[in-house]
């Protein structure tokens, strides 16, 4: 870091996206009576430097012209970047880029021009970036590809008594590398030490806690939350981002039935849970036929995920086997929140346009993942040697085969090694079998296919693992799937084979 950077402790950031041939420039600027504002420019890497510099100057100037020049600002912003670069009759800020005090030729591409330690300077301005800009008497150091927050948001619905965490897309770091500071909005008339206060979005906030998540109390109802998210990695700190809740904290359910279940055991625990995917819960069929007794707000994922996450946290499980997991919910909630709790997870999506599937999480301080497997059962039936005899039998019943081969059912398995017993292995498997009331014979076939796949995985290992096979089998003890799983055998006279108009075997 150059001495000027150390003196000012202000930075501008450039993040290069080589895949998209783009770069993002970010810095904060304030002057005189103009409040500090965040500036972000997303530019093509092949764009000439002079065009980018002109756009920086134009953006800052437009912001400072005030309400009387709003109309002209819109007109100038509507012009092409080339026009902006040619605007010399009314120069507002003269912006230039320097490397080690030497001006950078403006015909260079932006991808080549913006480098660590460069200085973007104007006669009145100093700004250091990942490529740097200078404005007035302010100077910012350039940091290239520093940890950064591309976007971040808090949940749409925040309830007292339920954990809150942010979803963020990051560059050059992970959420585990970030610093989190949570604030709550302050009511008028309340006073706190100045060092605990923070102002944002015309509101005043008071510091609550540090950490990746927080749980609002019932005293917080009616207040907004603010998260200051600071990306960092290996001693390099990126720009702190303000993440403000769009809505105030609302009351949550006082007592949830799952809280009693959370105390059944304090030892090793596995949890299997069908979450009911949002794509199904929020459908017209769900509202009018399946769950007409349920308030509509309670079927929405924004509400339900508060309860789901609180329940999962409370079980203190070592293994989670989850079904009907929305792809977005896995990526933005489960993987993030359970990751904060020390879990790693795998997602296997069904062969379906509904974007939902299976998820398996394990506690990282107890297990290490050796290998993972994901399959769609209909595909596996045609290609897996372990299922060849089942395929031969199914081929004799075209109607059953047609039904079986069109189902999106997924299967996943993880081979885990216990951290405290590294000479042992644990194979865990997860699935969600066919749901239809008249599909008992299909479920039996799917269950048997899963068993055979597990047996195949076991046969490939020198050390024979213990096995935990969980999931939503859409069955109960009086049906054949339970008998197959517990006794390893179902006779040809089992009623499950004959619940359909097209029984199996034929």
TrEMBL record:
Region annotated Disordered, chain positions: 64-89
SUPFAM superfamilies: DNase I-like
Endonuclease/exonuclease/phosphatase domain mapped to chain residues: 272-492
Gene Ontology MF terms: 3'-5'-RNA exonuclease activity
Family matches, as Gene3D superfamilies: Endonuclease/exonuclease/phosphatase
InterPro entries in UniProt: CCR4/nocturin_mRNA_transcr (IPR050410), Endo/exonu/phosph_ase_sf (IPR036691), Endo/exonuclease/phosphatase (IPR005135)
Bias type Basic and acidic residues, positions: 75-89
TM segment ranges: none
Gene Ontology terms: cellular component: mitochondrion
Any one Gene Ontology BP term: nuclear-transcribed mRNA catabolic process, deadenylation-dependent decay
PANTHER family attached to this UniProt entry: 2',5'-PHOSPHODIESTERASE 12, CARBON CATABOLITE REPRESSOR PROTEIN 4
Protein name: Endonuclease/exonuclease/phosphatase domain-containing protein
The organism of origin for this protein: Haemaphysalis longicornis
């Amino acid at each position: 870091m150059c001495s000027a950077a150390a003196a000012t402790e202000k930075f501008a950031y450039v993040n290069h996206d080589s895949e998209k041939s783009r770069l993002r420039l970010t810095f904060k600027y304030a002057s005189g009576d103009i409040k500090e504002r965040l500036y972000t420019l997303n530019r093509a890497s092949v764009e000439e430097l002079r065009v980018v510099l002109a756009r920086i100057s134009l953006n800052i100037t437009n912001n400072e012209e005030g309400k009387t020049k709003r109309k002209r600002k819109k007109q100038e912003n509507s012009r092409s970047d080339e026009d902006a670069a040619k605007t010399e009759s009314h120069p507002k800020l003269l912006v230039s880029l320097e490397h080690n005090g030497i001006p950078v030729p403006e015909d260079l591409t932006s991808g080549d021009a913006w480098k660590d330690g460069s200085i973007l300077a104007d006669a009145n301005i100093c700004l250091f970036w990942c490529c740097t800009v200078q404005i007035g008497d302010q100077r910012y150091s350039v940091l290239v590809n520093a940890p950064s927050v591309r976007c971040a948001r808090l949940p749409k619905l925040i309830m007292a008594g339920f954990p809150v965490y942010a979803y963020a897309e990051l560059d050059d770091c992970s959420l585990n590398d970030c610093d989190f500071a949570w604030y709550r909005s302050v009511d008028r008339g309340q006073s706190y030490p100045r060092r605990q206060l923070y102002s944002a979005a015309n509101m005043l906030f008071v510091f609550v806690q540090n950490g990746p998540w927080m749980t609002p109390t019932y005293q917080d109802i009616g207040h907004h939350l603010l998260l200051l998210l600071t990306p960092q990695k290996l001693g390099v700190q990126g720009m702190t981002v303000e993440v403000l809740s769009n809505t105030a904290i609302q009351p949550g359910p006082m007592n949830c039935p799952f809280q009693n279940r959370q105390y059944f055991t304090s030892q090793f625990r596995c949890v299997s849970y069908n979450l009911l995917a949002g794509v199904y819960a929020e459908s017209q069929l769900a509202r009018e036929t399946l769950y007409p007794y349920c308030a509509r707000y309670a079927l929405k994922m924004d509400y339900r995920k508060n309860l789901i996450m609180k329940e999962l946290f409370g079980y203190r499980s070592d293994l989670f086997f989850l079904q009907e997991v929305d792809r977005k919910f896995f990526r933005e909630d489960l993987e993030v929140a359970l990751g904060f709790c020390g879990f790693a997870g795998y997602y296997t999506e069904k062969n379906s346009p509904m974007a939902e599937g299976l998820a398996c999480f394990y506690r990282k301080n107890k297990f290490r993942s050796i290998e993972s497997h994901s399959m769609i059962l209909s595909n596996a039936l045609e290609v897996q040697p372990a299922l060849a005899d089942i395929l031969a039998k199914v081929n004799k019943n075209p109607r059953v085969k047609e039904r079986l081969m069109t189902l999106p059912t997924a299967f996943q398995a993880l081979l885990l090694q216990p951290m405290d017993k590294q000479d042992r292995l644990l194979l865990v498997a997860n699935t969600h079998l066919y749901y239809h009331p008249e599909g008992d014979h299909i479920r039996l076939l799917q269950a048997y296919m899963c068993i055979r796949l597990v047996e195949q995985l076991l046969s490939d290992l020198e050390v024979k693992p213990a096995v935990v096979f969980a999931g939503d089998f859409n069955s109960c003890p009086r049906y054949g799937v339970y008998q197959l799983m517990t006794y390893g055998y179902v006779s040809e006279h089992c009623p499950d084979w004959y619940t359909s108009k097209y029984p199996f075997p034929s």
